Amino acid sequence: MWPEFWLAFALATALLVVPGALLLVALGARPSVALGSSPLASVVLYGVMGILLAALGVSASTPLMVVPPLLVAAALLAWRLRSSQRPASPGVAQRHELAAMGACVLAGIAVTALVLVANLPGPDAFIQAWDNVAHFNMVRSMEQSRVWSTLSVTYYPGDAAAIDPLVSASHYYPEGWHLIAVMLVDALGVSVTCAANAVNAVACAVVMPAGVYLMLLRVFGREPRVAALGALVCLAFPSIPWNLMPRWTLYPNLFSFALLPTVIASFMGIAARGVDLRARVISGAIFVVGGAALYLAQPNSVFSAAVFLAPWCGWRIFEWRRGQGERRRRATVWVALWAVFVVALWVVMLNLPFLAGVVGYYWPPVTSFQNAVDGVFGLSFGAGPPRYALRLLVIVGFVSACRTARLRWLVVPFSFSALAFVVAGGIDTPLKALLAGFWYTDPYRMAAMAALFAVPLAALGLYEFVRCGHRLLASRPRADALVSPVLIAVFAVGLYLPALLYRLGVPASPYPDNFYALAQEMAEKNDGSRRMGYDDEKIAFVERALEVTGPDAVVLNQPYDGSVYAYGVNGMNVYWRYMSGYGASDEDGLETEASRILRTRLAAGLAGTDPLAWQAIEESGAEYVLVLDRDQEEMAAAFKPYVDADWAGFLALDDSNPGVEVVLAEGDMRLYRIV
């Protein structure tokens, strides 16, 4: 099983890197930029291919998605190699960049293996959460329908549309993450959940470290060593990418945040100093492609990029005006005008009609104001104990940035995001929409953004420690040579040892570091034997039931007994696949009359005493009924939308009910055949 996971990890890496890298090298990007930016180009290529194949009515497959972009990239590269624009061999600086990026990725793989993979009880493990119902259903639907267009997303593909209980046409959804997952399922035959884990691991281990390296090269152009040190700290924050898995399964947002640093780097490359026109054009092209990639992954990351880049643009305006000979005060006025423009544009965007559903989404406070503030200063963002070693690095980096004119702008993105987190997570105020509206006022997304924008500060802090060590030992060459590796090793231990201690079974100390708690939460929430809802026992029963029903037979189910996952995780053709929208929670009136009748009068319809209910059963084409649980208290605890009155038709059903026969039975679990 684990070899399959690592094969999926390797294929996902290749899918994200190879087509995009070939295309960018063919367009003239230098090797490190091409490799680091390749996921942006690859995601857009796959998005375009998915839409094109769907428009042509061609069934999508991994080869059809990959081969055409590869051929185009290879043709462009071959043309360039034969022309006068033949790319030069990488110079010493470029080879150093490639080596440093490779070290960043290796470090990322090691940390991801420790924090994520080692805490999965198996490659098919998954976390039971609201969003995962959607993620798994979408991947399964794409795999079955062979329609991989981001414009045509549905839980009920093909003939299954006839049983959709919440009538809705296929629609747009940002499925960049889902595209990579379904390509793994199609190419390797791995489970949907294994593919999900592999894509998440690649985003954490490969995409994010490489992107952070490119971003920090732009931020700290005069100190390239800081960029390499960023690889050590970029995965040390609980909020990004780790808490986007066990605490709130925001996989598309995790993927888009992993892509975000590269988009930021490409924009900074457009206006970088000492760069020729050709390099600026390439950076501009990557930025445009990157914007499309973020739109395909999770559009709110576009606003995250703006939060980081707006202060940088303000600094570049200041530098530009000073370079024109203006006095500091007059240059500052230009920056103030830029700030006014940014705020005005922000307010206008908040009031655009097509964003109303996002901006108007309300999140109640998830913690107290004091806990939210403590979470910022502890860098846990309210998700457990502080990160002691990391806090030290960020404080030193924050102070260093404030003291350095060209880096002072770095404190603004982190400060804004931290403030937005406190408001979104710890205060009940209309300011939520103003500061965090573009992110659904979700404190977890704000925490992830704040953590990502703290990475440059932490890298700068580590660099300051290394530089101080070199100064202190400058007169002792032998000792001075050991400063960097020793200090890096010390902080690496301080940052990641807690997660290793949990894996080794060492009890938590009286003052545990957040990474210990994170590793524990990751392991416990992925443990199917401890899961309340769709546990390992129910999954095994559904697998046995599938041997009887096959993947095509319609199975009536009560989703809150855990079977809401049966389609996405196992591929069973169950009737109810949504987490909410039935009965009391059907606020928009989307539920069909047939669904209402079946939910509330199923037992009577099967018994033949309710003709209308029996007609609904016949029209659904259902052949089986699945029951995984009868404990109403457990269902209400595991699934908050559950209301027992909404499922009276299932509550009244038992083995003695006329119209059904028991096919499989284990404890309270049943598979009935409709007779």
Summarize the structure.
The protein is mainly α.
Task: From the structure above, extract its key features.
single chain; 675 residues; mainly alpha; four-stranded mixed β-sheet; 4 strands; 3% strand; globular
Helix content: 55-70%
Strand order of the largest sheet: 1-2-4-3
How many β-strand stretches?
4
Nearest-integer average pLDDT: 92
β-sheet strand percentage: under 5%
CA(first)-CA(last) distance: 39 Å
Count of helices?
A: 26
Which residues form runs of ≥5 with pLDDT under 50?
none
The H/E string reads: HHHHHHHHHHHHHHHHHHHHHEHHHEHHEE
Silhouette: globular
Summing up helix and strand content along with how strands pair, one would put the structural category as mainly alpha
Largest sheet: number of strands, sense, barrel closure? 4 strands, mixed
Could you outline the blueprint of secondary structure elements for this entry?
Elements: H1 2-26, H2 31-56, H3 62-82, H4 92-115, H5 130-145, H6 176-188, H7 192-219, H8 224-233, H9 251-270, H10 277-297, H11 300-323, H12 328-350, H13 356-359, H14 369-378, H15 388-403, H16 411-426, H17 431-436, H18 443-472, H19 477-503, H20 514-526, H21 536-549, E1 554-557, H22 566-570, H23 593-607, H24 611-620, E2 622-627, H25 632-638, H26 648-651, E3 660-666, E4 669-674
Parallel strand pairs: 1-2
Antiparallel strand pairs: 2-4, 3-4
Helix pairs in contact: 1-2, 1-3, 1-6, 1-7, 2-3, 2-7, 2-9, 2-10, 4-7, 4-8, 5-6, 6-7, 7-8, 7-9, 8-18, 9-10, 9-11, 11-12, 11-16, 14-16, 15-18, 16-18, 18-19, 19-20, 23-24
